[in-house]
């Protein structure tokens, strides 16, 4: 098996060295297209390689593509519980014996493709702190049917691999009326401007902060900004949360505004490519997602520590998703126009 052009062994749920999947030529994943923006599909090749002296005996081979939403949790009595919801399921028969008897197979290659429903959510694997887990996963399955015998009590041989699915969105323009977060006292005025609420999952969130110091005894001691991720099963009240990335600066790094004696400003940045490891020990950030069984959402939190004044806190709900540029989408559409339409 050539793992350089196919999924690694760890992606398989049921693995065989003699029956396996590979990607299409010059590709490193099953998904093609930008799901959510244009027709998208999973495609690849299913291979069978058996020795001449010990061929595969089969009556039929079927390929399946299916997606599931799954949740797992422990109830108050410590019992393990789970729930599942099917997203999609597609099947095609790729080979069948000419007669009712088995036929020998030693070497065959089956190109395949399945259209992904446009409303399908992205793959997610969330492992919570409180024994509450949620996942969205997609599987490509090959089921090889054999005649039942003393050797093969189970008449089916299964090869199954995970297919990571991403959903996409076009770049988001700044909001026409962006949220201006303001905190004002007799001593100072602070405002935070986030000109949009949707961000690329691999991008940077810039957070401009402006101060107007009215009482000269008041100082800015420290500024902390962080991106929080929240997860909740719809049937449970508990919420898992964790800090994905943060930035902190001391007050002396806040710069004065030119031609002003009491105005100061700074732009804080959260680089989502530097997401830290959470409780599942993986540096992974999930897209914001709402399903029938669970929800994942994100917030930007801002904490400003003041001297001789009350501290200031802001929070803003944001959406994280995969964003594709207009140019990349146009290039894909041009290269795949005939195949899509």
Automatic annotation (TrEMBL):
Name of the molecule in the record:
Arrestin-like N-terminal domain-containing protein
Identify the species of origin. Gigaspora rosea
Q: Pfam families recorded for this chain?
A: Arrestin_N
Domain Arrestin-like N-terminal residues, every copy? 52-161
The taxonomic lineage of its organism, from the top, reads:
Eukaryota, Fungi, Fungi incertae sedis, Mucoromycota, Glomeromycotina
Superkingdom, taxonomy of origin: Eukaryota
Q: Which InterPro entries match?
A: Arrestin-like_C, Arrestin-like_N
